[in-house]
Write a structure and sequence with these properties.
Elements: E1 12-18, E2 21-26, H1 37-48, E3 59-64, E4 69-71, H2 76-79, H3 84-102, E5 108-112, E6 115-117, H4 119-126, E7 129-133, E8 137-139, H5 153-161, H6 163-172, E9 176-177, H7 178-184, E10 189-191, H8 196-208, H9 212-225, H10 230-242, H11 248-258
Helix pairs in contact: 1-3, 4-5, 5-6, 9-10
């Protein structure tokens, strides 16, 4: 018996713009959607649900409330006066949050609607791919505060941008534009802010129309394969591919092609 998906959270707004697409909005607009302890807990609770079941969702969209900021990073007002033990306890939640986002089997598309600084940039980098508003800006500013990226930034940014560009941005703390992020490989597409939600929904619906088991297996093969040798990655790909062979969706896809109609995939 499948457990009901939890969709009510203190710091997140969850809605379904389509039956197969769920949108997660970071919702602390009074703080530029900065990550506090509660938001960390909420993101863990939401995304870890999908480790057990896709809950009928084929695509997740991650964005921020308002037009100013996607996420301003860690909430430094909450962190003011924290003891070392309190800081480390909070960071343990953020570490689990990053893993929940990266390990989510359902594709996660980032809709970066404004500034993505510090931990906000790191959250963006956990998404499978990103579309950004043309006014969005990015930065990893942790070294200017006496810390360093601890939400995956030293690992996800080099994988997206290359080692030298990532070192330049992380060691300097320099901000960069959405256009630069696209040119360097972090962002897939830059669009006017007013068009961002519609453009992201277009690609989300296209992904959602495909066979959901195939999409999840392909996502896993790409992500895990990049952490292996080529030979091991090829072997992993074959194992992921073999998961498709006994599915009804594989039969439906071939049948629909031969009948010259659009396939109806059911995820079985």
């Amino acid at each position: 018996m499948e457990i009901e998906l939890q969709t009510t959270f203190e710091t997140l707004r969850i809605d379904r713009p389509d039956e197969s697409v769920m949108r997660v909005t970071l919702c602390r607009p009074e703080s530029s959607n900065a990550i506090n302890t509660q938001m960390g807990r909420d993101l863990v609770a939401f995304f870890e649900q999908f480790a057990l079941s896709p809950h009928g969702q084929r695509v997740l969209i991650l964005t921020g409330a308002g037009e100013k900021a996607f996420c301003a990073g860690g909430d430094l007002k909450e962190r003011k006066g924290m003891t070392d033990a309190q800081w480390l306890s909070q960071h343990a939640i953020f570490e689990r949050m990053v893993r929940a986002l990266i390990d989510c089997p359902v594709p996660v598309i980032g809709a970066i609607n404004g500034a993505a600084y510090g931990g906000g940039c790191e959250i963006a980098a956990t998404c499978d791919f990103l579309y950004a508003a043309e006014h969005a800006r990015f930065a990893l500013t942790e070294v200017t505060l006496g810390i360093m990226p601890g939400g995956g930034g030293t690992q996800t940014l080099p994988r997206a941008l290359g080692e030298r560009r990532a070192k330049e941005l992380i060691l300097s703390g320099l901000p960069f534009s959405a256009q630069e992020a696209q040119r360097w490989g972090l962002v897939n597409e830059v669009v006017p802010g007013a068009e961002l939600n519609d453009r992201v929904m277009q690609i989300a619906l296209r992904v959602a129309a495909n066979a959901p088991i195939s999409v999840r297996q392909a996502k896993q093969a790409i992500h895990r394969g990049l952490q292996m040798s080529l030979a091991d990655g090829l072997a992993f790909e074959v194992e992921a591919y073999n998961r498709m062979v006994p599915t009804q969706d594989r039969l439906e896809g071939v049948l629909a092609f031969n009948e010259k109609r659009k396939p109806v995939f059911k995820g079985v």
